[in-house]
Each structure stands twice: as structure tokens, then as C-alpha cells.
């Protein structure tokens, strides 16, 4: 496994020195390729703290991790021989607000910054920039533009391109569709799905959007008050009675499926993951 957590906890230090336990006793494993994962939970449940451990921005105060063969525990900071930069190349983290990652004069300079920092030649870095800008749905003309003159959606795409240029095995995205209209959201989710399927990357998305979880995820992680309370299939998740206790909304497709089944007095045994598949199932049910 590329990422392995064993009973990992993390406590932030507070002014009163009592501390705040952000994640507690988390055990999980994530493969380096082939997974599409969503991480969900209420605000303050520990999601961002959890993913910052995945590329060693934070190290556990209790427990231990193995990130691509590098062992990390609470003593890692004192062990100067442990090199963490290779992890940050293999586990790319895209922050919620692209402004945190964009700072250069041009889009191209922003994208090549990461690869150049990891020793890639300028020519190779520019070649990667031309490739990844297309992967995120923009053309090469954007490379000459200032990142600060782009729309919110374009900035998000450029920040993703900058991480992809480092060729990570795992791509982590913190609330990547927040602030986008439905069309922009769907377009960006298609980009993530293409990255997952065509580039064979493991993609992990932090989101509050249950529609994204239901339509795209192959695996769902649910955080609740710092504890990992669910790790499994999205279909099984939304069939559980306690999703209301976790303050998770029912996806729109499931609500629509229930309404259509009631209206046409039919049963749909499977659970379509898209509106198109749902309407096809309803048509077949009505015919019968």
C-alpha cells in the first residue's frame, strides 16, 4: 500500500496548552493507483488534517504512518535523516483556494515551479506544462497568461495542472468544486475522472457534495469528530440508517429514484449512479 495509517492521532497545540485532538486513532490504507475516493464529514471533523498527514505536511502525535516506504511517527521531526520531500512529489495536494498555490507571473511559470524544484530540467518541465494544461481542459494559450487574471474555475484548473506536472501517484483535492456552478462542477469532475481512468491515478476528493460522492466515488471515507467512522462502498453508505446521525444528505439521484418509483409504481432493484442510467431503468420498469 502507498499510504498506511496505524492508529494515527494528531493534536493541535492551543494557547491554554490543553490541545485539540483533530483526528483520533485512524487506521486506513490507500493504494498508489486505481482508486477514486471521496472524503466527507462535517466542518471540523478532521478531513483536512487527515489529508495533510497523507503527504507529510503534518506528522502524527500518536501512532505511525508508512508513506511510499517512508516510516513516520511522532519522532520524525527530530530525525533529520528522514527526507519528506519525495512524499510530496508522490502525493500531490491541491488546496481548496487556488490563490494559495498561484504566485508566479505566468501560468507556465506556476506550473513548472514544482517540477523544477524537484530537479526536473526546464525543457522537460515546460513539456509537462504543455501536456497537463490540456489534461485540465485548457489550451496552451493559457500558459502565457497571468494566473491572477483568470476566472475562479480556471485558477482551480491551473493549480491542479501545477500538481499534475510533478507526476504524483496520488492526487488529493480539497473541496475542488466549491464556488462553481453546476456546469463548471460537472466539467471539473469529468477532468478528475479522466485523470483517474486515463492516467491511472488514485484520486481523493474532500467534498460536502453527496452527489459527487454517489456518482463518482468507488470508495468513501467518513470522518466524524476526528474519528474515521466509515470506509467502504458509497451504495452501502447511503443505505445505512445512521447517515442522518452523521448529518449526510441523501444524493439527489436517490431522492429522484424514490420519487419515480412511487409515481410509476415500479421497483428498481439496482442503484443507478447517473440520471441517464436512472431514466433508462425507469423506462424498462414502465415497459414491464
According to DSSP, the number of beta strands is: 10
How many angstroms does the end-to-end distance come to? 46 Å
SSE string, helix = H, strand = E? EEEHEEHEHHHEHEHEEHHH
Give the count of helical stretches. 10
What are the low-pLDDT stretches, counting only 5+ consecutive residues below 50?
none
Secondary-structure arrangement, i.e. CATH architecture of the largest domain: 3-Layer(aba) Sandwich
Can you summarize the main beta sheet?
6 strands, mixed
Mean pLDDT: 90
Quickly give the structural class: alpha/beta
CATH topology of the largest domain: Rossmann fold
In terms of DSSP E residues, the strand content is 15-25%
Q: What does this protein look like?
A:
37% of the residues lie in helices and 22% in strands. The protein has helices at 47-54, 85-90, 107-117, 122-135, 152-164, 182-198, 210-216, 234-238, 252-264, 275-287; strands spanning 3-12, 20-30, 36-40, 62-67, 70-73, 91-94, 170-174, 202-206, 219-224, 227-232. Helix 4 crosses helix 5 (152-164) and helix 9 (252-264) packs parallel to helix 10 (275-287). The protein starts with a strand and ends with a helix. The model has no long low-confidence stretch (mean pLDDT 90).
Q: Descriptors for this entry?
A:
37% helix, six-stranded mixed sheet, alpha/beta, 288 residues, four-stranded antiparallel sheet, 10 helices
Amino acid at each position: 500500500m502507498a499510504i498506511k495509517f496505524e492508529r494515527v492521532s494528531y493534536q493541535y497545540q492551543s494557547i491554554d496548552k490543553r490541545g485539540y485532538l483533530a483526528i483520533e486513532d485512524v487506521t486506513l490504507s490507500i493504494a498508489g493507483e486505481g482508486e477514486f475516493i471521496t472524503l466527507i464529514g462535517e466542518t471540523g471533523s478532521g478531513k483536512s488534517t487527515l489529508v495533510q498527514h497523507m503527504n507529510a505536511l503534518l506528522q502524527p502525535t500518536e501512532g505511525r504512518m508508512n508513506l511510499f516506504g517512508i516510516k513516520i511517527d511522532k519522532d520524525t521531526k527530530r530525525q533529520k535523516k528522514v527526507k519528506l520531500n519525495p512524499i510530496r512529489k508522490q502525493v500531490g495536494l491541491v488546496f481548496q483556494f487556488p490563490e494559495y498555490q498561484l504566485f508566479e507571473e505566468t501560468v507556465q511559470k506556476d506550473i513548472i515551479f514544482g517540477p523544477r524544484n524537484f530537479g526536473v530540467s526546464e525543457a522537460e518541465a515546460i513539456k509537462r506544462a504543455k501536456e497537463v494544461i490540456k489534461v485540465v481542459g485548457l489550451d496552451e494559450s493559457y500558459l502565457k497568461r497571468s494566473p491572477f487574471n483568470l476566472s475562479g474555475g480556471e485558477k482551480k484548473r491551473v493549480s491542479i495542472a501545477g500538481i499534475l506536472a510533478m507526476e504524483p501517484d496520488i492526487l488529493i483535492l480539497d473541496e475542488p468544486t466549491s464556488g462553481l456552478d453546476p456546469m463548471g462542477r460537472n466539467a471539473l469532475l469529468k477532468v478528475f475522472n479522466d485523470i483517474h481512468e486515463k492516467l491511472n491515478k488514485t484520486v481523493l476528493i474532500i467534498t460536502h457534495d453527496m452527489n459527487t460522492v454517489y456518482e463518482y466515488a468507488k470508495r468513501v471515507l467518513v470522518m466524524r469528530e476526528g474519528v474515521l467512522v466509515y470506509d467502504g462502498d458509497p451504495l452501502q453508505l447511503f443505505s445505512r440508517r445512521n447517515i442522518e446521525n452523521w448529518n449526510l444528505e441523501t444524493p439527489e439521484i436517490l431522492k429522484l429514484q424514490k420519487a419515480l418509483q412511487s409515481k410509476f409504481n415500479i421497483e428498481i432493484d439496482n442503484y443507478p449512479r447517473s440520471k441517464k442510467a436512472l431514466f433508462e431503468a425507469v423506462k424498462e420498469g414502465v415497459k414491464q
